[in-house]
Design a protein that fits this description.
By secondary structure, this protein is an alpha/beta fold. It has one domain: Rossmann fold (3-Layer(aba) Sandwich), CATH 3.40.50.360. It contains six helices and seven strands. The strands form two sheets. Strands 2-1-3-6-7 form a five-stranded parallel β-sheet, with helices on both faces. It has a two-stranded antiparallel ribbon with strand order 4-5. A hairpin with a 2-residue loop joins strand 4 and strand 5. Helix 1 packs parallel to helix 6. It is globular and about 55 Å long.
Length: 202
């Protein structure tokens, strides 16, 4: 069984989402003998954001020579995702949504004919057999019913993205309020780490 581990926080060892995503992977390693893990740090090896040249190349136009390395990286990222049975993502909230590094990765895996297709009935996801677990960290409180819920565009966006490609049961472990104060951060992190240790086997 193959697991793809993605981190997107720019905070390195100070990141809550990185700590929780690592705990998730550790839990799945313990419960799944022989688990094959591939790790990608989107801040250490960032992907370029989409350009007109990227889209033209995707539609069959000749690509400029300088784009070749990035197109190769795109192909590698897509293959990593397609070959994974389980995907674990560390996703902090930055300015109410996902990090731009994670958006660049998503732009490489939402590919028509690979992870979704169009039909007379509308778009159809092709990646529904995968298990996706997302470790979310948020500085404030954005859960349903909270005063800031309308500004929550991280979990809602990722649910929509993965639902679009057929993954409708993505799992989320959330550490909320980590910037409210040290006590809130400690409690949120402890709760998220405990949730990670309770995950079902891969």
């Amino acid at each position: 069984m193959k697991l793809l581990h993605i981190d997107s926080s720019v905070l390195g060892p100070h990141s809550v989402s990185r700590q929780v995503s690592a705990a998730i992977v550790d839990r799945l390693r313990q419960t799944t003998p022989g688990l094959d893990v591939t790790y990608r740090d989107l801040t250490q090896t960032p992907l370029a954001h989409l350009s007109g040249s990227h889209l033209a190349a995707a539609q069959g136009a000749p690509a400029p020579a300088e784009l070749a390395p990035d197109l190769a990286a795109s192909a590698a990222v897509l293959e990593e995702f397609l070959s994974a049975d389980v995907v674990v993502i560390g996703a902090p909230m930055y300015n109410f949504t996902i990090p731009s590094q994670l958006k660049a990765w998503i732009d490489r895996i939402l590919v028509v004919g690979k992870t979704f297709k169009y039909s007379a009935a509308g778009p159809e996801g092709l990646a529904g057999s995968k298990r996706v677990i997302v470790a979310i960290s948020r500085g404030g409180y954005y859960g349903a019913g909270s005063p800031a819920a309308a500004l929550e565009h991280l979990e809602s966006y990722l649910r929509g993205v993965f639902g679009f490609i057929g993954i409708h049961n993505a799992e989320f472990i959330i550490a909320d309020g980590i910037q409210v104060g040290p006590d809130h951060r400690e409690k949120a992190l402890a709760g998220a780490l405990q949730a990670a240790t309770s995950l079902q086997a891969a």
